[in-house]
Design a protein that fits this description.
CATH topology of the domain at 5-80: Glutaredoxin
Bound molecules: glutathione
Low-confidence stretches: none
Distance between the termini: 25 Å
Largest sheet: 4 strands, mixed
Shape: globular
Order of helices and strands: EHEHEEHHHHHHHH
CATH class of the domain at 5-80: Alpha Beta
Structural class: alpha+beta
Strand content: 5-15%
Number of helices: 10
Number of strands: 4
Helix content: 55-70%
Strand order of the largest sheet: 2-1-3-4
Length: 246
């Protein structure tokens, strides 16, 4: 079988989630790092339904979205002699809530500050892997990229505060799930819920095993909160999960 290709943004937490699952399940694949705008062209060329990354291109078709990629990766685990992930109705429900709430609001909180107040933090990360021509094109298209992201993700000062509060409440919920004492969100082995929770907020706590750990930095206000939260149960658990399983 030809190696699958995973199309990603380096900075995207949903893409990190898909990468982690593929790595854990022993899948041999290529990573194609894309920059914004160029990604839409690639998605169209390969026949994806929308431009949202991650997209996994396999010899038997396109798999789009981190949850679907996790399920596919897990189906490959036995033939790669890997235990794979625990996936149950409960872990799927937790994953869905994390994708729809935590993932969206971590992103809106981060970009509401970084893209508007300090774009120098994100612009170089978007360009990683895109080559000289890609970097020039990204610079030329930068005002359009920023305007599109502000509109699509509904970024702004009030939204930054609102999303921070939602993220804080979601972390309280995760702390309460971890109070079960098993070291996992569901059951007593690593599940799709665990890697979803950890990957969707990992850049805030900067585990060194994260593929973008040496290129993504936090804007100042997010950084202050991240420092305050570093000692909480969830953050300690996340760092351990990355250390032991990533
Ligand atoms: N729920 C989806 C979310 C995917 C998503 O929002 N991807 C963003 C990057 S974080 C994206 O590709 N945005 C650009 C676009 O949609 O064209 C997943 O889990 O994969």
């Amino acid at each position: 079988m030809k190696k699958p290709i995973l199309h990603v943004f380096l900075i995207s937490h949903y893409c990190e989630k898909a990468r982690w699952a593929l790595d854990l399940c022993g899948v041999d694949y290529h990573v194609n790092l894309l920059s914004p705008l160029a990604h839409a062209k690639t998605a169209k060329q390969i026949g994806a339904k929308s431009s949202a990354l991650p997209i996994l291109q396999t010899s038997s078709g396109i798999i789009q979205g981190s949850a679907a990629i996790i399920e596919w990766a897990n189906s490959q685990a036995p033939e790669n002699d890997r235990p794979g992930l625990l996936i149950t109705p409960e872990s799927l429900a937790i994953e869905k809530r994390l994708d729809d709430v935590l993932g969206i609001h971590v992103r809106r909180w981060f970009y509401s500050e970084s893209l508007i107040d300090c774009p120098k933090i994100v612009k170089p990360v978007f360009a990683v892997g895109s080559g000289l021509i890609g970097r020039v094109m990204l610079s030329l298209a930068w005002p359009k990229v920023v305007a599109t992201m502000i509109k699509r993700m509904d970024l702004g000062a009030d939204q930054e505060i609102e999303s921070r509060e939602i993220v804080a409440a979601e972390l309280d919920w995760l702390d309460s799930l971890l109070a079960n004492g098993s070291g996992n969100l569901v059951g007593d082995s690593l599940s799709n819920a665990d890697i979803t929770a950890a990957s969707l907020i990992a850049p805030m706590f900067g585990p060194s095993q994260h593929p973008a750990s040496n290129v993504v930095s936090l804007p100042p206000r997010v950084d202050v909160t991240a420092s305050e939260w570093r000692s909480r149960v969830f953050a300690q658990w996340l760092m351990g999960l990355y250390r032991d399983n990533r």
